[in-house]
What we know:
Number of helices: 3
Structural class: mainly beta
Shape: elongated
Number of strands: 31
Helix content: under 10%
Radius of gyration: 23 Å
Amino acid sequence: MPYFGKISYEDIQFATPGHGTTSGETFLRRSRIHPDSFIERHALDAAMIPFRNFSGYIEDVVPAVAAHAAIVTLEGTTAVAKTRKGVLIDAGTNPQTIIEAAIDYLSDGGLLILGEGTFEISSVITLKDYIFLFGMGNKTVIKIADGANCHGLALTDVSNVILANFMLDGNKDNQTIEVHGIRIYAANENNENIILHNIKVKDWKLHGIAITGGGTYYNLNVFADNILAEGCEGYGLTFYYVKRGFAKGIIATGGTEGGLQAKYGEDINITGVVAYDNLNGIVIGASDNPIAGVNIQNCHLNNNEHNGLVIYSQTTECNVSNVVAKNNGKYGIRNEADGVRICNCICNSNGTVGLYDGIVLLDAQKCNVVNCTCNNNGRYGIQSHDTADYNNIKNCRASGNGDTNIKLDGAHDTA
């Protein structure tokens, strides 16, 4: 599992409104947590929530942690929930029931720690506002029982939640219904301030992590980092109905639909994604799902069955920089949207299953492709296709491609 460091169990950094938010400064609050047990200390030390430069800005969440905490451990086949002082909350052989008893105990929110072991559940665990759920890394596993056909964790109309340091196993071969590892849904109000950190999701019947909404309700200030998604039958991570979303340090592989998707929202920042052996690496936008203000940078999108990066025509204000897309079956970067800026990208050796290009501007206009390298692709290095026009290709290098290195169909395209 990705792991970048740790913080003290006493000091948790939060970026908050009114404290240098425009420049990404952080505001340090003393959490006043003094763990009484090794397990609590260990979980908090391992958390390393990276709030620095997080411009979603979590509001006033530390007081909840300071006030309450609970721990759920496994003793053989029995799940045991206790307060931080060791007072029994509940115990039984159904981990989902015991975990939710601990959540209920944290009536005003607080810190819930899951100990080591596999918590096999037959129904979804439902979280609420101000819950900080921390595990012990890959040693804490929430697994769906055979035939349970349920999501792993559900968050509906909640705010100020942190999920960190555990694995979710979807056991997809023994399920018959499309379910998600984590489902975050804005149904009747906006969800706000959701952090997902250091989580592995594997083998889910649909998406590993699905962040979604409906109508006029969105997920605001969503930060997902250090996520490892493997073998999901949808996407590893999908942002849908998200405003101000951050995906950082994501590794996604084996996604039947793709590694990462963002559609219907605005202000989405995607950085440091590694997506390989999926259908598509990253997909932005979809039919009738407009998305605006997307920044994609420092990603490696290689060896995907179809495309490294797809940007659909409903996307506006999109920038792509420092992306490497190699050895994909079709296009390295397939862009259908107007006004996209693509710079400092490397798109080599794509089109492994046919005549495809390093970068294609498919009916897209007024795009800029600058300082890109596109070599040894199946057809063209860079192509502006069909009705694409008014595109500017500048300072790009293309050689060794199956056909013309740079092909411009637009009457006003320049290179």
